[in-house]
Amino acid sequence: MSINFDQRQLSAYFVCGTQDIPGQQLTTVLKRALTAGITAFQYRDKGASRLTASERLALGEQLHTLCDAAGVPFIVDDDVALALALGADGIHVGQSDTHIQQVVTEVGQQMFIGLSCSTLAEVQVANQVAGLAYLGSGPIFPTQSKADADPVVGLAGLEQLVTCSNRPIVAIGGITEPQLPALAHTGVAGAAVISMLAQSDDYQRTVTAMRTAGWLIR
Q1: Model confidence over 114-152: pLDDT tens digits?
Q2: 82 with 96: CB under 8 angstroms?
Q3: Domain spans in the chain, listed from the N-terminal domain onward
Q4: Which secondary structure element, helix H or strand E, spans residue 69, and what is its range?
Q5: pLDDT digits 0-9 by tens, 185-209
Q6: Catalytic site residue 116?
Q7: Which of 6, 17, 135, 213 could form a disulfide with 184 if both were Cys (CB 3.0 to 4.6 A apart)?
């Protein structure tokens, strides 16, 4: 099943890989997140992950099946070959990953594409690229989840990016539940979180807070 992109899917966007949940099973964590009502899931297994390529593929198949059953888009981080092998609904790429135009050429007819943009210059370039569904901007606040994170954007910087972009933006990086209303006030379409949900003591409360933050729907 292929799920088409709808910007409302960005409201409660969960990003996770095995490196983010030591001692836990990613399938179990995703089941809890789906039950709580996440609107998108990005499979981002990298960094400290110890999975082999075949293990990453096998786990991805299980995760995709769970997302399909819940009607939630399954998005792969960075890896075009893995995204194609898994028949992903979407792929998310960063500025330092495969050249975005090459990604659009390879998978644009098969899945939607998200691109990380953290500066006005990057957003302006992205505005000229046909075939992008959304932009991911951050880190909005300091984060421990990415060792190679860009400089902090902040709320004022995020609002500038939203104003400049001709596509919906999902905010990422260091986000906590109390900050969600202020984030929504910038005009972003949602929040993409790792630790805020993976380390939450109440998945239902956290996801409900994300879904009801008052995101802008263009």
Answers
A1: 999 999 999 999 999 999 999 999 999 987 655 556 689
A2: no
A3: 7-153+168-211
A4: helix 53-70
A5: 999 999 999 999 999 999 999 999 9
A6: yes
A7: 213
Q: Does domain 7-153+168-211 have CATH number 3.20.20.70?
A: yes
What is d(CA 218, CA 211) in angstroms, rounded to the nearest whole number?
16
> 8 an active-site residue?
no
Q: Which pLDDT tens digit goes with each residue over 40-56?
A: 999 999 877 789 999 99
Tell me 17's DSSP state: -
Structural tokens at position 208: 């409900």
Is residue 218's pLDDT more than 80? no
**pTM: predicted TM-score of the whole model, two decimal places:** 0.94
pLDDT of 30 higher than 90 = yes
Phi and psi at residue 42, in whole multiples of 5°? -110, 125
Residue 146 a catalytic site member: yes
Q: Which of 11, 56, 118, 146 is catalytic?
A: 146
* 98-107: burial string, b at 16+ Cβ within 10 Å, e else: eebeebbebb
Res. 18: pLDDT tops 80:
yes
Q: How far is CA 71 from the centre of its chain?
A: 16
Q: Which residue(s) pair with 156 in the sheet? A: none
Question: One of 11, 44, 118, 145 is an active-site residue; which one?
Answer: 44
For residues 190 and 210, is the Cβ–Cβ distance under 8 A?
yes
